[in-house]
Task: structure prediction
Amino acid sequence: MARMKFLCDADRCIECNACVTACKNEHEVPWGINRRRVVTINDGLPGERSVSMACMHCNDPPCAAVCPVDCFYVTDDAVVLHSKDTCIGCGYCFYACPFGAPQYPKVGNFGTRGKMDKCTYCAGGPEADMTEAEYIKYGSNRLAEGKLPLCAEMCSTKALLAGDGDIIAEIYKERVVTRGYGSGAWGWRTAYGDAVAV
Amino acid sequence: MNTKNLAQRCIAVLGAVTLLAFAPMAQAQQVNPTAEAVNAEVLLEALQDDQMVAGRVSIPDKLASGLIKPANKSWASTHTGLVRVLTIVAIVGAVVILGLFYMVRGRIMIDGKMSGIRILRFSAFERFSHWLMSGSFIILALTGLNLVLGRIIILPWLGEGAFSTITAWGKVSHNYVGWAFMVGLILSFIVWVAHNIPTKIDLNWLAQGGGIFKKGVHPPAKKFNAGQKVIFWSVMTGGAALSVTGFMLLFPIIAGTQADWQFYQLIHGLVAAGLSFIIIAHIYIGSVGMEGAFDAMAKGDVDLNWAKEHHSLWVEEMQINADKKDSSAKPAHPAE
Result:
């Protein structure tokens, strides 16, 4: 079984934000929510790099640990998903997430937020695969169709890689060795405990 | 003619200045950007306690500019570790200690039996303040405990759907009942603060262990003994801390940023666990643990013998006041 991960090669990312747009379009993500975003570090300075970031589908996910209603589950592909039927919108997962992945569609009185929404690795939710109920709550289920997440699939510079962690780490290592530099696998140490050793 | 000349000169000067200004920038562009590229590992290692790797985002949500914030994981492990453990220790500890105490000491009875004479201990307004505060506290404590422990205790036998439903309602009631608690807390402070100033009598009461541990020992006390004063000030300080942190959690925009929310949530959880411990002990001694004590808050009046044993100085004060009023030929009103 594959252990799915994302890896953003910041030396290739050109901050075109197409991954952000593709994600929003593919899943009909509500206004104000970005399951994926591009963060530019050292903007305007020499050595500026952009990183596309979403839920990293961590090992031992902290969001799942703090959820008071235990609405998270991890698939066989190590994708971290959640049930919007169970979620009470308390916001604890947002406190716990190192990547700012969980987001909430509403702003109500006394800090109420609505059901949490986050990147599903294009793997839907607990509903039956590729049903309308699943699509309305979580967006499309590309993994069930045998496809990888759309953000990575359509990345114009192939900066954003998705797939089995070992394979994409190998691809990234090859790139770093070939071109002679690399700014690292962003978020990997925090999400998986170790970075990609080159 | 003159003005045109001046304008031409100005443009020439501006052009020269511009050239000078941009010359260093042209040089900077020759630097190899890969050599100075930011590096994920280096940035991560350079982080201090509460910092994050952050940059700029082009989407409207500027809070999304934080890229990696490892500190959030330490909040998570504190929440599922320290907070959860201390909450369990507080609740189980209180029940075990009180259970042992009950087995050893039994119910504290009125030594002189019931006299049949009742005296007013708490006015209707005092009781209203107390029950507004305590009723709301119990709802808040149960719904709050559910957030910390419900997943371990209730979820397995209630199932995901039903547990989610009650927890969602619990969250809503927690948000609204909190206001009733704040009002009750303020009212209770106003009606009782004067009676809760520590005095020398309290030292004597404490030295004798309040007579709690030994039959027939009844150190003198005014309206509130030292133990009750400890409860009062614990509730006031703990309640104030819960109110402030709870308010901040209800209004995250006022509270600040994520680190502030985490801080308030942590304090809220820890204080709630501590106060729950104290309140369980308070509920015990005010009901099962002591004969005649519950009447004070339930009906407002207590048996004279109970009052003489537990609040001797208060009874004396009451009787002197009553005598004064009698002598001045006014209708007898119980003080307080």
Observations:
- Chain B has two domains: 32-69, 71-327.
